[in-house]
């Protein structure tokens, strides 16, 4: 009888500890994700600070892919704000390391493929003439794969539209085709429901901004 009671107490204790740890994780993640919903935090230095916090969360929660995903997101977004191209590859490398960790936990993930596509795109700006074809194709292929995994992900269409928007017409870009992608993205955003409050949900306002530039 004593053994049974001890086992029950042990199980209850473990369950309580697990719930407390889960609540702590959710709280820490919610705070950081909320920062990414605030456009004032989109500066190179601020994004790197947030990335560091996500990395610390990931180090403590090794079975969770989202901390590594968001760390990668922060690093790659900071590359597009850098005035010094010499810093881009290093930041892209840090983004790639985190995304590899996220993918090891959650393979065949459309959201992860979106960030991998952005990482490839970020490397183009260092040397567009020599890198454009290689990384442009890599970025496009990753979005195709993401779409095959989940055709309802609005960020896939947004990023495809972004590529068409910023690529010169002589290299395959098209504002007309970009507009179509942005319109599909907004349709998908209207019905998109994140899996949780900390799941990826970014991009709608940015899509509207790019579409407004075309109109």
TrEMBL record:
Q: Which UniProt keywords apply?
A: Signal
| Signal sequence, renumbered to the chain | 1-20
Q: What is this protein called?
A: Tetratricopeptide repeat protein
């Amino acid at each position: 009888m004593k053994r049974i009671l001890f086992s029950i107490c042990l199980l209850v204790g473990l369950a309580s500890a697990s719930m407390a740890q889960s609540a702590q994780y959710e709280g820490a993640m919610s705070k950081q994700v909320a920062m990414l919903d605030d456009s004032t935090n989109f500066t190179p230095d601020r994004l790197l600070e947030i990335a560091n916090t996500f990395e610390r969360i990931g180090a403590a929660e090794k079975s969770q892919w989202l901390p590594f995903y968001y760390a990668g997101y922060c690093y790659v977004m900071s590359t597009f704000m850098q005035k010094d191209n010499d810093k881009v590859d290093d930041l892209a490398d840090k983004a790639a390391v985190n995304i590899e960790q996220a993918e090891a936990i959650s393979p065949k993930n459309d959201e992860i493929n979106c960030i991998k596509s952005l990482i490839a795109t970020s490397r183009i700006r260092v040397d567009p003439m020599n890198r454009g074809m290689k990384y442009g194709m890599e970025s496009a292929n990753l979005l195709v794969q993401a779409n095959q995994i989940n055709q309802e992900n609005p960020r896939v269409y947004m990023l495809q539209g972004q590529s068409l928007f910023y690529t010169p017409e002589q290299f395959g870009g098209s504002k007309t085709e970009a507009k179509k992608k942005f319109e599909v993205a907004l349709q998908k955003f209207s019905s998109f429901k994140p899996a949780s409050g900390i799941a990826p949900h970014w991009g709608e306002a940015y899509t509207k901004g790019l579409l407004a530039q075309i109109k």
